[in-house]
Amino acid sequence: MAERYVLVRWPDGTAQRIYSPATIADEFFTAGQRMPVVDFVDRTRQALGIASDRVKEAYGYPCGRAARSLAFVEARAAVQPAGDVVVEAIEA
User: Fold this and answer.
1) How many structural domains is the chain composed of?
2) pLDDT (tens digit per residue) in 20-73
3) Which of 25, 62, 75, 87 could pair covalently with 33 via S-S, beta carbons 3.0-4.6 A apart?
């Protein structure tokens, strides 16, 4: 599977690198995109859910790294639920 890293900047200026085990991230995020935290978390849940399901179809188990990435995103959003997240880049 082709993995992706989504590089984002949170409203407080903190940078985060989010792992996706599949290219589905390309369909949910684009460099320069700005969105409210709640929308970003929702898109991340969707994208990483689909990516993890693809891993499960291919290997028989879901992707633990995708689940960990989502947990980090949700934890960050819990402490700063307001403002916009900016997608700075998507790396292969």
Assistant:
1) 1
2) 999 999 999 999 999 999 999 999 999 999 999 999 999 999 999 999 999 999
3) 87
> Is the whole-model pTM more than 0.90?
yes
Whose tokens are 């929702």? That residue is 42
Q: How far is CA 34 from the centre of its chain?
A: 14
Between helix 64-79 and helix 37-59 the angle, nearest 10°, is 170
Full domain range(s) for residue 49: 4-91
The H-assigned helical ranges of 1-92 are 25-28, 37-59, 64-79
In the block, residue with structure tokens 């959003």: 77
